[in-house]
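U., I forgot to send this yesterday:
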Amino acid sequence: MRFTKMHGLGNDYVYVNCFDERVDRPAELAMAISDRHRGIGADGLILIEPSQVADVRMRMFNADGTEAEMCGNGIRCVAKYAYEHKLAEAGGQFKVSGQPPCPSSLQVETGKGVLTLGLITDDADKVAKVCVNMAEPVLSPGQIPVSLDGDRVVEQPIKVAGHNFLMTCVSMGNPHAVFFCDDVGAVELEKLGPAIENHRLFPNRINVHFVQAGGLGEFTMQTWERGSGITMACGTGACACCVAAVLTGRGGRVCTAHLPGGDLDLNWCEEDNCVYMTGPAVEVFEGIWPES
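Result:
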């Protein structure tokens, strides 16, 4: 089976072109190839498949084999692969209020629905960056889901591992819990991440983010992803943190997220209530995984 290793800000996945390859047991494959000592090494597996409603379809599996609805860094790489490997023909301009338009676009089917992506290419017609319309954030507890009453979960007190926190929850197609702190580098993420991920309040588990606000235009974050652990970047999580910063008065709608793997530009657009995320997509290498 041929594969391609790609990453967005160090959030790395193994990609399989299912236009040409067949994957019968993706959960098992995800666990095997993600192993950083006995496999290829990755945060998970992403399948690029034909779609009846978009240019391509993305299926994403975490390192523990569980399937997730969306991956912000992963979808940028899917768009790069589909464009450069000619799985789809790019459409017209992609426009975002207050930003220069992208000259071409693609649509990708995900577990969240069909998302539109603008492609930013270099002089060699290679995709350097991708702007993703991540759609509207979901704030209703029942839809995130979080087992709490009310219309929103904003600065909700929660006690985990003997610590008291204020939590804001957002879904960007997958669930996120955001915690603002004074020093993100001092957070014991290895201890708190799994405890929060598997807390009884989250029936589908949850992605965990600790955020240090740096003013209205930027913030620094660290992430524990459900099913994968600590990762260098989380695109959907950065979008959720942008929304949480606005809801708690700690940030502006247009901002830059500083992640361990690099920066993402975010825009929670007032015109359509959608969150736009712009960041790089990088192909690392290709290889062949033995059929057995």
